[in-house]
Amino acid sequence: MNSMKKLVVSVIAAVAASSAAHADPLKATVIHWWTSGGESAAIKQFADAYNKAGGLWIDQAVAGADQARSTAINRIMGGDPPTAAQFNTSKQFHDIIDQGLLNNVDDVAAKENWDKIFPPSIIESIKSNGHYYAAPVDIHMPAWFFYSKPAFQKAGITKEPATYDEFIADLDKLKAAGVIPLALGGQAWQEKITFDAVFADVGGPDLYLKVYRDRDVNAVKSDAFKKVLTQFKRLHNYIDPGSPGRNWNDATALVISGKAGVQIMGDWAKGEFSAANQTAGKDFGCFPGFGPHSPYLVAGDAFVFPKTDDPNVVKAQKLLATVMTSPAAQVAFSAKKGSIPIRSDIDDSSLDMCAKEGIAIMKDKSRQLPNPEMLTPPDINGALQDVITNFWNKNQSVEDAQKAFASGLKS
Amino acid sequence: MNAPRHPLKRRSRFTPARLGVYAFLLTSALFFLLPLYVMLVTSVKPMTEIRLGNILSLPVHFTLDAWRVAWQSACTGLDCQGIQVGFWNSVRIVVPSTVLSILVGAVNGYALSFWKPRGATTLFAILLVGAFIPVQVMVYPLVRVLATVHLFSSLPGIVLIHTIFGMPVMTLLFRNYYAALPHELFQAARVDGGGFWRIFLQLMVPMSTPIIVVAIIMQVTGIWNDFILGLVFAGTRNLPMTVQLNNIINTTTGERLYNVNMAATILTSMVPLAIYFVSGRWFVRGIASGAVKG
Amino acid sequence: MASTPAGKTLRAPVSHAKRKPLRKRFALAAYIALLPMALTVVFAYLGTMLWSLRTSFTNSRTFASNSFAGVSQYVRLFNNDRWMLSLQNIVVYGILFIVLCLAIGLLLAVFIDQKVMAEGALRTVFLYPYAMSFVATGLVWQWILNPELGIQEVLHRIGFTHARFDWIVDQDRVIYTLVIATVWQASGLVMALLLAGLRGIDEEIWKAARIDGIPRWRVYVSIVIPMLGASISTAFILLFVMVIKLYDAVVAMTQGGPGTASEVPAKFIMEYLFGRANLGMASAASIVLLVTVLAILAPVFYIRSRALRLRDSR
Q1: Phi first, then psi: what are they for A265, rounded to 5°?
Q2: Is C156 on the interface with A (CB under 8 A)?
Q3: Which of A73, A83, B8, C194 could form a disulfide with C109 if both were Cys (CB 3.0 to 4.6 A apart)?
Q4: Closest chain A residue by Cα to residue C77
């Protein structure tokens, strides 16, 4: 009996000692939509860094951005919120802020000096009423021009175009060489990206901001905007008949195999190139626009933190916000994701050629242009997307498109 | 007392009519099999071939890698364990949901068809109109309702949800089936003193085999392939296989491995397909006739 | 004393007193058995419909709000070209889909009923499309129907260089491609349903027809198919539900395109619900859809219930 008691006491003592030595890891359930192989490798960088810092990352991925966001919202409403949920740096989550359903991360922002190291457009999209409600984790540029080097060689194009007109001339050369000049997936969001690329490059940042940020109807009715629409529609001569409905990956596949010359797509497309074992600068090239002052569209992803009073969850949220925005994690993540880090104070030597160029451009604040999603709420974005896809696919006159765009902006 | 076999039956079975039947069936079969062919062929090609776009051509480099990857190592988020992860969850959701929804549908159909309590037809009409509401529109308020009864994010919750969503079609199926059965049987049973449940269990259920088979086909397929409801209501410990399937196929900005997608889809559909194949035994003629004579 | 209605078998008056309480007990069991259905209808379905109705009169965005908006959402809805086009599309699609599925399903069921060889295998061939997630099969159909990857390309390669089958990129014809792919998916189920109905038909009828010397096809047309009325009506309603809920196929095959040419109501609602965070408009669209369905179903229902009542009182 006595030895039994001694055994029990010593076991309890041992357990107590060991549990005093290790604090419980901070559990964090994270909803996001990064489910492909390349994206998984990227999010692993965050998960590993978080686990090393004393956390426990519980992954709850849901493919499809709309699906993931609505899952997060449903869980919040059902009383089972995740610790963190992915959104875009945009106006998507501002309704949730207004309902008081998010925790803010002001102390992390103050401690890590977010105001100094993040670009101004990102800061604006994560802040509301002076509080910081999201941790931005990457910057994507949706309007890169990717091209196949073999296809360019075949068409006799020796250097990247420096103006939009040179670009059109290059497209003509590609057509003459029997290559599909522009690989486009005819889905509404891809057509909108193409339009925004032309808008930023041909219309210029001032007109762009007047339309998207100020919603100035007169800017839409101007001749300058008319020119943007016309130049945009010109590209329709350079796509192939199988374009409508095509997935963006299939369009990239055309460039990868040299069947097409150029694709206008976000820098996430580099994932497809790497999956096909192609390297930037060798097998394919990339340029962000025309000329040394071309605008650089800024878009990105951010994690929000649903409201909770549980102190452990709040701690986990703050740890997540800190870890995901830390320099080492940022570089490791960007290398796998194809994006560029949100902070400017990092070492970019391990990133690919296109990313390095993007980082260099970002240093020039005058070239940064926020993505339309950062400037307009989701339903106006959608209405404008409808206008553009109609204009692209139908024989609509430029004037009618202008009118439709103007009324979409007002809706 | 068998009537002598009709002499016409001895004639060759290859009458033009019969050939016509086979011709129609085989041509239809080809149309139906075309997409399966494309899926199979795509699933055994490497991506380099798929990118070339020859969807009907046989593979140059045959490889079963995509199948292995789909089952056990495809990335579905941070975890890269393929679709096998959710297999048992799907089973645990499908079995009770199918049983419960068919049971409720059969009882409803039986009550509506033979007993016709007051107001039942109006309820049924509303139920039927409810079948047309898009699922996502119903998710929003149902999340609130389930949260109130503490069933949100749980296995009983998802079973309840599937029963709710399956009720209109199941009830319709059974009600129309029972409506076509001869009502004399029912009257006779009532005269004999049968009660509601006795008549149901001893008379109707044995006669319902064909429609139960159809109901099983519909429910197993619908619930096994369901993604939205499982994602929202099942809770993270019970996520069905289709959530992983969706994660593999539906990436927004990630690269798409079509061979893996096709393999994963075919693997996921194996369970409903197995049910279809096995159900063949019960598509037998003459279920009702036995009861009429006896 | 309640009089027995005309047409029912007369009971001996002696047992009448005993009969009444027994009758009540029967009816009570039926009411109790239908309780789950009643609860579901009231709380799940009716509740949702009323909630949607209420939300359609507000300016709800991501969440349901109380800011009253009158009928402005409905006004915006009917000024929206995409919505009007989606209604047009669903009508054209619906008629083609239902007719083709019923016809093909019926033919397949009847032909398979002819004691053909390998019936099990054939049935599985026609049913397997229903088992597969449309996300993947829809993409396959997109490839097959794409002029550069699919049928048109194959025809070109084997020599028909001027053959054209590019409906999927043609604004006016894209809706037909959706019909093709979804009929492929759903006909098997209609076949299974009608086969179950066929197999439920009394063997006696076949024997009687044989003895009378009626040719097989006459038996089908004049006797069997009318007896399949209930199965056909079930199939019709199931197909109608599939038409209204058409979404996966559109997303997988055409994404509503080219442009907005293949837009359908369910996709419109989904987008305004999620992507555009406009709950008010999505609710208004749902209500319009439901009212349309009701307008089509109500007369059908009324006619059927009158026919049934006539049949029962005979």
Answers
A1: -155, 165
A2: no
A3: C194
A4: A411
Same domain assignment for residues A150 and A164: yes
pLDDT tens-digit readout, A33-54: 998 888 999 999 999 999 999 9
CA atoms in the 13 A half-sphere facing the CB of A348: 21
**Mean model confidence pLDDT for chain A:** 90
Phi-psi region of C159 (alpha: psi -120 to 50; beta: other; left: phi over 0): left
ipTM of the complex: 0.84
Quick check: helix, strand or coil at residue B194? Answer: coil
Q: Is C166 helix (H, G, I), strand (E, B) or coil?
A: coil
**Residue A262 CA: distances (Å) to CA of A171, A177, A225:** 8, 14, 24
Q: Which of residues 376-395 of A touch C (CB under 8 A)?
A: 377-379, 381-383, 386, 389-390, 392-394
Closest partner CB to A275 (pick from B47, B80, B252): B47
For C96-123, what is the mean pLDDT?
88
Entry pTM: 0.85
Query: Computed from CA positions of residues A196, A199, A205, A209, in that sequence, does the dihedral angle turn out positive or negative?
Result: negative
- If asked whether residues A218 and A314 sit together in one domain, one would say no
Chain A to chain C Cβ contacts (< 8 Å): 89
In this prediction, residue B289 carries a pLDDT of 40
CATH value at residue B133: 1.10.3720.10
> Helix A223-234 and helix A378-393: axis angle, to 10°?
60
Q: What is the pLDDT of residue A11?
A: 60
pLDDT mean across residues, chain B: 85
Given a contact as 3+ CB pairs under 8 Å, which chains touch A?
A: B, C
- The β-bridge partners of A298 are A370
Residue-number span of the structural domain to which A287 is assigned: 144-297+369-410
Contact flag B129-C210 (C-beta cutoff 8 Å) = no
On whether the CB atoms of residues A347 and A339 are closer than 8 A, the answer is no
Rounded Cα–Cα distance for residues A50 and A31 (Å): 15
| Structure token pair of residue B105 | 């549908």
The shortest C-alpha distance from C107 to chain A (Å) reads 33
Contact at CB, A379 and C142, closer than 8 angstroms: no
What distance in Å separates residue A66's CA from the closest CA in chain C? 6
Work out the angle at residue A222's Cα, subtended by the Cα atoms of residues A386 and A194, and round it to the nearest 5 degrees: 40
Could you tell me the two tokens for A236?
């329709």
pLDDT (0 to 100) of residue A16? 56
Scanning C226-255 for CB atoms below 8 A from A yields: 253-255
pLDDT digit string, tens, across residues B75-92: 888 888 888 888 999 999
A56: which DSSP letter?
A: E
* Residue B162 belongs to domain spanning: 84-293
| Any C CB within 8 A of A183 CB | no
CB A88 within 8 A of CB A300: yes
Q: What is the domain count for chain B?
A: 1
Q: Please say whether the beta carbons of A337 and A268 come within 8 A.
A: yes
Residue A382: its chain C contacts at CB < 8 A? 271-272, 275-276
Burial A338-373 (b: 16+ CB within 10 A, else e): bbbbbbeebebeebbebbebbbebbeeeebbbbbbb
Tokens for A88?
A: 């875009």
Domain for residue A328, yes or no? yes
Put simply, the answer to whether C37 touches B137 (Cβ < 8 Å) is no
Task: Assess if residue A11 is contained within a domain.
Answer: no
Kindly report the CATH number assigned to the domain that includes residue A195. Answer: 3.40.190.10
Q: How far apart are CA B17 and CA B294, in angstroms?
A: 36
Same domain, yes or no: A230 and A262:
yes
pLDDT cut 90: percent of chain B above it: 34
CA angle in degrees (0–180, nearest 5) for A397-A401-A404: 140
pLDDT in tens, C211-260: 787 777 777 777 777 778 888 888 999 999 999 999 988 988 888 878 88
User: Can you give the C-alpha Rg of chain A in angstroms?
Assistant: 24
